[in-house]
Design brief:
The protein is of the alpha+beta class. Helices cover 15% and strands 41% of the residues. It has a 5-stranded antiparallel beta sheet, with helices on one face. β3 and β4 form a beta hairpin.
Protein backbone atom coordinates (compact mmCIF):
# COMPACT_ATOMS: atom_id res chain seq x y z
CA UNK A 1 0.00 0.00 0.00
CA UNK A 2 1.36 3.42 -0.98
CA UNK A 3 1.33 5.97 1.86
CA UNK A 4 -1.42 8.50 1.36
CA UNK A 5 -1.41 11.96 2.88
CA UNK A 6 -4.64 13.32 1.41
CA UNK A 7 -8.13 11.84 1.16
CA UNK A 8 -9.35 10.31 -2.08
CA UNK A 9 -12.88 11.22 -3.13
CA UNK A 10 -15.57 13.65 -2.16
CA UNK A 11 -16.35 14.67 1.43
CA UNK A 12 -19.79 13.12 1.99
CA UNK A 13 -20.13 13.12 5.78
CA UNK A 14 -18.52 14.94 8.70
CA UNK A 15 -19.31 14.34 12.37
CA UNK A 16 -17.83 14.46 15.85
CA UNK A 17 -16.83 11.30 17.76
CA UNK A 18 -18.68 11.37 21.09
CA UNK A 19 -18.27 9.51 24.42
CA UNK A 20 -21.38 7.41 23.72
CA UNK A 21 -19.60 5.96 20.65
CA UNK A 22 -16.73 4.32 22.58
CA UNK A 23 -15.85 0.69 23.17
CA UNK A 24 -14.63 -0.86 26.45
CA UNK A 25 -11.11 0.51 25.84
CA UNK A 26 -12.31 4.11 25.45
CA UNK A 27 -11.64 4.23 21.70
CA UNK A 28 -14.40 4.87 19.19
CA UNK A 29 -16.22 1.60 18.46
CA UNK A 30 -15.43 0.13 15.03
CA UNK A 31 -19.11 -0.59 14.41
CA UNK A 32 -19.92 3.09 14.83
CA UNK A 33 -17.24 4.00 12.29
CA UNK A 34 -18.62 1.40 9.89
CA UNK A 35 -22.12 2.89 10.26
CA UNK A 36 -20.79 6.37 9.42
CA UNK A 37 -19.01 4.95 6.37
CA UNK A 38 -22.19 3.18 5.24
CA UNK A 39 -24.17 6.42 5.54
CA UNK A 40 -21.52 8.37 3.65
CA UNK A 41 -21.30 5.78 0.89
CA UNK A 42 -25.09 5.58 0.66
CA UNK A 43 -25.31 9.35 0.17
CA UNK A 44 -23.10 9.09 -2.91
CA UNK A 45 -24.88 5.95 -4.15
CA UNK A 46 -28.32 7.61 -3.79
CA UNK A 47 -27.10 10.61 -5.78
CA UNK A 48 -25.85 8.33 -8.55
CA UNK A 49 -28.96 6.12 -8.53
CA UNK A 50 -31.38 9.05 -8.20
CA UNK A 51 -33.28 7.21 -5.50
CA UNK A 52 -33.34 4.43 -2.97
CA UNK A 53 -30.36 2.10 -2.50
CA UNK A 54 -29.59 -0.75 -0.12
CA UNK A 55 -26.23 -1.94 1.14
CA UNK A 56 -25.52 -5.48 -0.07
CA UNK A 57 -21.86 -6.01 0.78
CA UNK A 58 -18.79 -4.53 2.45
CA UNK A 59 -15.32 -5.62 1.30
CA UNK A 60 -11.87 -5.06 2.73
CA UNK A 61 -12.79 -3.23 5.92
CA UNK A 62 -9.42 -2.18 7.31
CA UNK A 63 -8.99 -0.34 10.59
CA UNK A 64 -5.66 1.49 10.40
CA UNK A 65 -5.58 3.71 13.50
CA UNK A 66 -7.85 4.28 16.50
CA UNK A 67 -10.23 7.23 16.75
CA UNK A 68 -10.64 9.18 20.00
CA UNK A 69 -13.52 11.04 21.61
CA UNK A 70 -13.58 14.60 20.29
CA UNK A 71 -11.99 13.77 16.93
CA UNK A 72 -13.68 15.08 13.78
CA UNK A 73 -14.56 12.07 11.62
CA UNK A 74 -14.71 12.75 7.88
CA UNK A 75 -15.96 10.22 5.32
CA UNK A 76 -14.68 10.57 1.76
CA UNK A 77 -16.28 8.53 -1.02
CA UNK A 78 -15.50 7.76 -4.64
CA UNK A 79 -17.48 5.65 -7.09
CA UNK A 80 -15.23 2.93 -8.47
CA UNK A 81 -17.77 0.89 -10.46
CA UNK A 82 -21.33 1.04 -11.81
CA UNK A 83 -23.30 -2.00 -12.88
CA UNK A 84 -26.89 -2.32 -14.14
CA UNK A 85 -28.28 -1.80 -10.64
CA UNK A 86 -25.17 -1.90 -8.45
CA UNK A 87 -22.85 0.89 -7.38
CA UNK A 88 -19.45 0.24 -5.80
CA UNK A 89 -18.15 3.00 -3.55
CA UNK A 90 -14.74 3.25 -1.90
CA UNK A 91 -15.04 4.99 1.49
CA UNK A 92 -12.17 6.37 3.56
CA UNK A 93 -12.43 7.76 7.09
CA UNK A 94 -10.03 10.58 7.84
CA UNK A 95 -9.70 12.00 11.34
CA UNK A 96 -8.78 15.51 12.39
CA UNK A 97 -7.53 15.94 15.95
CA UNK A 98 -9.27 18.97 17.49
CA UNK A 99 -9.55 18.02 21.18
CA UNK A 100 -6.26 16.27 21.90
CA UNK A 101 -2.61 16.38 20.85
CA UNK A 102 -1.38 16.79 18.24
CA UNK A 103 -4.05 19.41 17.46
CA UNK A 104 -4.71 19.73 13.73
CA UNK A 105 -3.17 16.39 12.78
CA UNK A 106 -5.05 14.47 10.05
CA UNK A 107 -4.77 10.77 9.34
CA UNK A 108 -6.63 7.97 7.60
CA UNK A 109 -8.28 5.76 10.23
CA UNK A 110 -10.14 3.18 8.14
CA UNK A 111 -11.25 2.28 4.64
CA UNK A 112 -13.57 -0.19 2.90
CA UNK A 113 -15.48 -0.81 -0.31
CA UNK A 114 -19.29 -0.71 -0.04
CA UNK A 115 -21.59 -2.20 -2.68
CA UNK A 116 -25.10 -0.79 -3.00
CA UNK A 117 -28.01 -1.83 -5.21
CA UNK A 118 -30.64 0.59 -6.49
CA UNK A 119 -34.12 -0.67 -5.60
CA UNK A 120 -37.68 0.30 -6.43
CA UNK A 121 -40.48 0.94 -3.93
CA UNK A 122 -40.99 -2.81 -3.50
CA UNK A 123 -37.33 -3.38 -2.70
CA UNK A 124 -36.56 -5.05 -6.03
CA UNK A 125 -33.39 -4.16 -7.97
CA UNK A 126 -33.90 -1.50 -10.61
CA UNK A 127 -31.58 -0.24 -13.35
CA UNK A 128 -29.58 2.93 -12.87
CA UNK A 129 -28.79 5.41 -15.62
CA UNK A 130 -25.28 5.61 -16.93
Amino acid sequence: MIPQDTPVGELVLRTLAMPADTNANGDIFGGWLMAQMDMGGAIMAKEIAHGRVVTVRVDGMTFLKPVAVGDVVCCYASCIKRGNSSITINVEVWVKKVSSEPIGQRYKATEAVFIYVAVDNEGKPRPIGR
